[in-house]
Design a protein that fits this description.
By secondary structure, this protein is mainly α. The protein has seven helices and five strands, in the order H-H-E-H-E-E-H-E-E-H-H-H. The chain has a three-stranded mixed sheet with strand order 1-2-3, with helices on both faces. It has a two-stranded antiparallel ribbon with strand order 4-5. It is elongated, with a radius of gyration of 25 Å.
Amino acid sequence: MVRVSLETQRESLTGYALLHKLDLVDVVADEGVSASIPLADRPGGARLLDLVQDCPAQHVIAMKLDRLFRDAADALTQTRAWDRTGVAMHLIDVGGQTINTSTAMGRMFLTMMAGFAELERGLARERTRDALQYKKRQGLVYNHTPLGYVRDGDELHPDIGEQVLIARIMDWRRGGISYGGIAKRLNAEGITGKQGGAFHASTIHKIVGNDIHHGDR
C-alpha cells in the first residue's frame, strides 16, 4: 500500500486552493491522531473549528472525508452546521474527482459517501466480531489469554485452578454480589488476576461478560 506523505498532501491542498483562487489561511494536520476521535476532540480539529468560527474562513479543504470525521453522523452534523454559516467543504481525492458542498450535487454526494463509509465501518466491525466469536467457539487464541485458560500455540485449554475461580465469581454474581464486591472479596483473599494484579470492578465485569465462560465456544 502506498502512503501519501503529509508534505505531498499539503502540496495538493495548496495547489487546489491556488487553482480555485482561494486564499489559504492555514494548513492544519492531526499527525498520529486517529480520525475515529470526534473532530472537536482532536488538537488539529479544534484548531480547524476555531479558524472557521473566528477567521471566518469560508472554505474547508480536505484530502478525503475520513481525514476529518469519525462517522456519518459526525460528518453530516458538522457539514450542515457549516452550510448554515456559508462554509463549503471541498474533498479533493474522491476516486480522481473532487466534491464541493457549496453545490446541491456536492452535498448529495457527500451524504452518500458518508453513508457508505459508515456502512463499511459497520461491516468491518461485524467481520471482526464474527471472527472473534469463531475463535472463541473453536478454543483458539483470540486476544490476551483469558482467565481460566492457558495458551498452547494458537489453542486455549482450560486451567483447572482458574476454572474453579471463574465458577466462584459466577456464583457470587448470580447471588447478587456487585462487580466491585466480588473484586473486594478476591483482593481480600490475596487472589491476583491473570497478570498478577489486583481485581477491579471492570475486571470482574469483563470476566462475567466473556461468553467463553458461558459454554458458547
